[in-house]
Amino acid sequence: MRRSSRRRLSSALLDLLVWLILIAMLVPAFWLVFTSVRNPVEVNAKPPVWIPRELTLEGFKPLFGQATEATGAIPFDRYFLNSIVVALVSTAIAVALGTMAGYVFARYRFRGKNTLFLGIMLSRAVPGIALSLPLFLLFARISQAGPVKLIDTQLGLIIVYVAVNVPFTIWLMDGFFREIPAELSEAAQLDGCTEWQTFTLINLPLALPGLAASAIFAFLAAWNEFQIAGVLTRTVNSKTAPVGLFDFTGQFTIDWRGMAAMATVMMIPAIAFVFVVQRNLVRGLTFGAVK
Amino acid sequence: MSKHRLFAPLVVAGVILAACAAPPAPAPQAPQQPAAEPTQAAPAAPAQPAGDEPKVAGVDRRFDGVTLRAAFIGGGQYEKMYESIKDWEAATGAKVEIVYKGDGFEIDKKLKTDFAAGTGDYDVVWDHTSFFSQYIPFLEPLEKYFTPEELKDFSQAILKSATRDGHLWLIPRHADISVVHYRTDLYNNEQYKAEFKAKYGYDLAPPETWKQFFDHAEFFTGKEPGLFGTNFAGKEEALSGRFYEILVANGGKMLDENFKPAFNSEAGVKTAQFFRELYARKLVPADMTSLLWDGVANNFCQGNIAVHNEWFGWYSYFQDPKNCKVAGKFDLIRQPVGEGGIRSGWAGAHAFSIPASSKNKEAAAALIKFLTSEKIMYEEAKLGFLPVRDSVWARIIADAAKSDNPLDKKRLEIAQTAIANDFFAPPLIAEWIPLTNILTPKLQAIMLGDIDAKQGLDEAAAEVEKMLAEAGYYNK
Amino acid sequence: MLAPSLAIIAFVVVFPLVYSFYLSFTSYTLLKPVANWNNFANYQRLLQDPIFGQAFVNTLLFMFVTVNAAFLLGLFLSQAIARTIRGQSVLRTLLMVPMMFAPVMVGFQFRWFFNDQVGLVNNVLTSLGLLNGSIPWLVDRWLAMFSIGVAMVWMNAPVVAIILLAGTLSISPELYEAADVDGANSWQKFRSITYPLLGPFITIALTILSLDVARGYDIVSIMTGGGPAHRTELLWTYVPRVAIQESKFGLGAAMSFVTVIVTVAFTLYLFRQLLKSRIL
C48, CA 20 to 30 Å: which among A94, A185, B348, C143? Predict the structure, then answer.
C-alpha cells in the first residue's frame, strides 16, 4: 500500500516533468507566432515588455501583397508556390525512384550490392556546403551550354532534392519490402503476373506506410532546405520560402515580425502534410526493425 | 556585415526627414517625365537655387526593344527609387527587369559567384565603393559613357574613391558617413556635468577627441540602470572598418604605399587597445562582438547607450518616438580627432556599375544617368539618404532650413562638411573583404582578451601580407 | 529499376564532388576562375591553418555531444510518454512541432533567445531575480557552443523520441508482467527488457540523426557565424567563409573534402551497426 502510493507520487512527478519539458520545447513555436502578432518595438525593448499592449496582424500584410513601411511587399505567393511545386514534385519523384530501388535491393542478389547500398546511403551524408558551390558551377555550365536551364529554375531544385531524398527512401523501403514474405511474390508470378505487376500490385500496396513515412521526410527536407536553394535560386522564378525569409533582413535591420509571420505561414503546409500522413509515420519508420 | 548596409533603412520608421522638413514638393504640374518629348541630357547642373525643377537625365535617346537585366539592392527605403524606372521606360522605349534583389552582402556573394560561373547576364548592377575593387575584371569602365560635364555635379571625393587604375567603375547613387551621436539628456544634465568635471578635470561636452570619447564612455557606464557608455558593431567587416576609422584618426594606416600591412604600428596597437579597454572595462555590452549595425542602433534607440559612432542614415528612425526612446534627445557632432590630429569618417557610397558582359551598355548607361540624375536623387534624398550631387545638397539644405527642428538642418551641414573633408573609403583593393576576414576575428580575440593587442595585430598582419603576396601585390 | 536513382545521385552528388575534388588541387578563386594545378598546396595549407584545426576539433566534439544529447533526451521522452496513458497522442503530436521548423528559422529564433541584451533567456532569468546583469550567451566559448547545442538538440530530439516511442509500444506487455511477478523495479525492467529490444530502433534513430547533423549549418551560421574570434567555428561555417567570402574556392574545396570525410566517417560508423542487423 505504502509502496504503491509512493510509486503513484513518483509517477505523477515524472508526468509533470515530461509535460514541463514538452512545454519548454514548444516555447520557440509559441514565441514565433507570438512575435508575428506583436509590435516589433516591444520585441526588442529593454527592459522587456512581457504583456503586449496590442496584438496586430500587420506583420502578415507584406505576405499578401501589401507593402508596409518596414518591408516592401514580399512576393510571398510566388515563393510559396515555388516551395509547394518543388517540394511536392521532388517528393513524388524521390519516393517513386527510391521505392523501385529499394525493391531491387530487397528482392535481388547481385555483386557489390552491399557496397552500393552503403555508397548510396553515404551520399546522403555529404554536407550541403560541400555540394552547393560545385553544383552551382556545374549547373551554370549546363545552363550556358544547352537548352536546359538549371539555375534559377524549379527544375534545378527538383533534381537536387530528388537526389538528396532518394537514399533515405531506398533505405526505408528496402526494410519494408524485406518484411513482405517473398512467397507472396512467388505465388503471384506463378499466377502469371509479370515482375512489374508483382511489384505494383502485390508488394507496393503492402508497403504504403513506408511510402508515407518516406514522403514526410522527403517533403520536410525539401520544404525547409535553405543552403542549396540559397545558391541556386535568384528570382521569383524559383526562390523558395526559406530563402525568401531573408527578404526581411534589410541593409541594417531585421523585420523580425514580418519574418516570424512568414515562418508561421510556412509551417501550415508542413503541418497539414504531416497531419495527413502522420498515422503511417511511426509504422513506416520502424516497420523494418520489427521482427 | 558592412558598411554597405549603409543607409539605415529607417526601415521601420519610414517617416523620414520629409515628414519634419515637409519641403514644398516640387510642383507636381511641372513638366515631369518627358515621356513623349525627350529633353536634352541635363548639362550637369551646377548647384542651383532651390525652386528650379531638378533635372532628369538619360532620357534623350530611344532604346526600343531593349530589355535591361538588373541586380539591385532591395528592401525598405531602397525600393522607392525603382518606382521611377517606369518613367524611364516610357521615355526610352526600353524595358527593365530587376532579376535579383537582396541586401548588399547577398548581392556581393551573388555577383562573385555569378561572375565566376559566367552566369551574370546583368546589364546594370548595384555596386559600392567598398566592394567594386573585387569586380573590376568583370566591369565596364564608365568614363566613355559619361562626359566630364555630366560628372561635374557629383561629389569629387566619392568619384575619386570610385576610380582605380585610371578608370571610373561606378556612378554613385547616395552616400553615408560616420558621425558621433550623443544623448543630450545626459550631456546637459547639470549634476553629471559637475561630477564629470570633478572626476576628469575638464568640462563635459560632446567629444572632440577619441580620448574624450573614451572618458565619456567610462563616465556614463552604469550612471543609469542598463546604461552603457558606447558600443560599436563588433563583427565582420563592420568591426575592421571601425578599427580602421580610428586607426586613421590616430595617424595610422591599414596598408602602406607598397600594399604591405601597416596596421600593426604603434597607432594600430593603440587603437586595438582602445577597443580592448572599452570591452574589458565593460563600457560596452558584453555581446558587442555579435552585434551588427541593427543591434548597435537598437541599443542606442532603446536609450542604453550614451554616445556612439553611427551612420547618418538612421536619423529619422531615431527621431521617431514610436520606435525610439531617444527621439528628440540626441544630437550629432562631427567625428572626433585622433592622436594623429585627424578626423576620419568611414564612408561609402552605394552606386551602379555595368558588367563588361552586358550587351546593352549604351542603354544601361542611360538608365544609370536617369537613376543618378538630379531629380531622382532629390527624391531619394527626401527619404533621408545623403545625396552625392552638389545641386541636390543645396536643395535639401534649403528644405531642411524650413523645419522646426534645427537638428534637421544641422545634420545635413555636418554631413556635407564630413563628406567634403573626412571622407575615406577602405583601400581600393579586391582583397579588402578577405582582409577584414582575417583582421576582424583577431580584433575580437584582442577585445575578448584571448590575445595581446600587439601580438594579435602582428599575426593578422603576417596573414594579410601572405594573402596579398599570393595575390601578386609584391611582384613588381 | 535501380538506374534512375543511381543516375540522379551521380549527377547531383558524385559529379560535383569529383569536380570540387579536382578544384581542390588548383588555385581556383572566384575572382580569378582559372584552374591552375598547384598540387597539394591547398592541403598543405589547411594542415598548417590553426583555425581549421580548431574548427575540425570543434566539429567532432559538437557532433558527438549534440547527437548523444538529442538521443538521450529523445530516449527519456519516449520512455516517459510510453508510460502515460492519458493524453499520449496529444503529447506525440506536440512532439512533432520542432520537426516542421525550417532550420534557418531555428537559428534566428534561438539567436534571439540567447541575445545578451533583449533575449528571452536573460529576460526570464532577470525577471525571476536569478540574474543581475546579463549573461553573454553567444560570446563565451562554452556558453556559445552550449547555446547552439541547445538549438540542435531541440530540433533533433523529437525524431528520436517518436521512433523510440514506437519501438517501446511494440514490446509485448507480457514481458513486463512477467518481470513484475519477479519483483523487478522500473530501472531493471528498462535495463533488461526495453533497452535490448529497442536495439534496432536505436540504430535507426541514430542513423537519421547522423544524416541530419550537417543541417546544423543553417543554425550555426545564423546564431554565431562561427564567431566571435573563431570561438564557435565549425567546418560548416569555416568552409563558406574561405570559399565565398575570401573567394578562395580551391582551398575551400580542399576543406570541404575533409568535411565530407569526417561527416561520412561518422555516418559510416553508425551505419555499420545497422548493416550488421540486416540480413544480407
Answer: C143
Q: Burial level of A265, CB count in 10 A (0-12/13-18/19+)?
A: middle
Contacts of C77 in chain A (CB under 8 A): 18, 21-22
Residue B356: CB partners within 8 Å, gap ≥ 6? B138, B139, B140
Please report residues of C whose CB lies closer than 8 A to that of B441: 51, 227-230
The proportion of chain B whose per-residue pLDDT surpasses 90, expressed as a percent, equals 58
Neighbour-count burial for B401-425, b at 16+ CB within 10 Å, e otherwise = eebeeebbbebbebbbebbeebbbb
pLDDT for B357 equals 92
Give CA–CA dist A57/A36, Å, rounded: 8
Residue to substitute from A137, A245, A252, A256, interface B, most B β-carbons within 10 A: A252
Report the mean per-residue pLDDT for chain B: 85
Alpha helices in chain A (DSSP H): 2-36, 40-43, 76-107, 113-125, 128-145, 154-179, 182-190, 195-197, 204-206, 208-224, 227-232, 241-244, 256-286
Residues 6+ apart with CB under 8 A from B426: B130, B241, B244, B254, B346, B348, B432
Q: How far is C195 from chain A (nearest CA, A)?
A: 14
Cα diameter, chain C:
76
Average pLDDT over residues B213-239: 93
List, in order, residues 6 or more apart from A8 with CB less than 8 Å away. none
Question: Is residue B418 scored above 70 in pLDDT?
Answer: yes
Tell me the domain boundaries of chain C.
3-277
pLDDT digits (tens, 9 = 90+) for B435-473: 998 999 999 999 999 999 999 999 999 999 998 998 888
Of B100, B102, B119, the CB nearest to A143: B119
User: pLDDT (tens digit, 9 = 90+) per residue, B244-298?
Assistant: 999 999 999 999 999 999 999 999 999 999 999 999 999 999 989 888 887 888 8
Look at the alpha carbons of C232, C238, C240, C241 in this order and tell me if their dihedral is positive or negative: positive
Q: Which ranges of chain C does DSSP label H, i.e. alpha helix?
A: 3-9, 15-23, 41-48, 50-83, 88-95, 97-100, 103-113, 120-127, 141-169, 173-181, 186-189, 195-212, 216-223, 235-240, 249-277
Distance CA(A87)–CA(C233), nearest Å, equals: 31
Chains touching C (at least 3 CB pairs under 8 A) are: A, B
The residues facing B350 across adjacent strands are B128, B174
Q: Which chains touch B (3 or more CB pairs under 8 A)?
A: A, C
Best of B4, B78, B81, B298 to mutate (most A CBs within 10 Å, chain A) = B298
Query: CB A231 to CB B113 under 8 A?
Result: yes
Which chain C residues touch B298 with a CB distance below 8 Å? 118
Domains of chain B: 3-176+347-424 (3.40.190.10), 177-346 (3.40.190.10)
SS3 (DSSP) at A194: coil
**pTM of this structure:** 0.83
Q: Domains in chain A, ordered, with CATH?
A: 2-61 (no CATH), 76-289 (1.10.3720.10)
Architecture of the domain spanning C3-277: Orthogonal Bundle (1.10)
Contacts of C10 (CB under 8 A, 6+ apart): none
Contact across the interface for B102 and A69, Cβ inside 8 Å? no
To the nearest whole percent, how much of chain C has pLDDT over 70?
Answer: 96
